Amino acid sequence: MPNQLQLTKEGFQELKVELEELVEVKRPRLVERISNARQQGDLSENSDYANAKEELEFLDGRIDELEAVIKNAQVVRNGNGKKDGIGIGTKVTLRTKGKSHIFEIVGDWEADPINKKISPDSPLGMALVGKKIGEKVSVEAPAGKVTYEILAIE
Q: Which domain holds residue 55?
């Protein structure tokens, strides 16, 4: 994992909320489930015990992962795109083939292309970072080269 992971303020908060939910709610429930299953006797044939142990291992892995990300996160301020061009934390309105699309540039951990949240390491993200309103970028897509015009940055 890189030393410094860039996240938007919203993305950072979402990870903290997820971590708190896992540590404060889900993990204690699993520990209680394991304890109850343990009281049922023979553990070698107790599928609830085995499933709960497996879920706990997975959950602990996710907790460790989130703690590392939060520890190494650099929160990027939103809204400085007008001066510096497009970067993490900016929303950009693009036009291609007569249609407008709004994308948000977010850290790698927050990327969600279906919801138009793209990483600066994605092909479109790489093409957009540092660009300003009025510029055009071309991106190679499965359907061929697509050209976008930057209409607005917020």
A: 5-75
Q: What are phi and psi of 40, to 5 degrees?
A: -80, 0
pLDDT in tens, 8-32: 999 999 999 999 999 999 999 999 9
* Strand 73-76 relative to strand 136-141, pairing: unpaired
How many Å apart are CA 123 and CA 57, to the nearest integer? 35
Residues 65 and 101 occupy one common structural domain? no
C-alpha–C-alpha distance, residues 126 and 59, integer Å: 33
- Give the whole-angstrom CA distance, residue 105 versus residue 88: 5
- Between CA 90 and CA 137 the distance in angstroms is 17
Task: Give this prediction's pTM.
Answer: 0.77
pLDDT in tens, 53-74: 999 999 999 999 999 999 999 9
One domain for residues 61 and 124? no
Cα(1)–Cα(22) distance, rounded to whole angstroms?
21
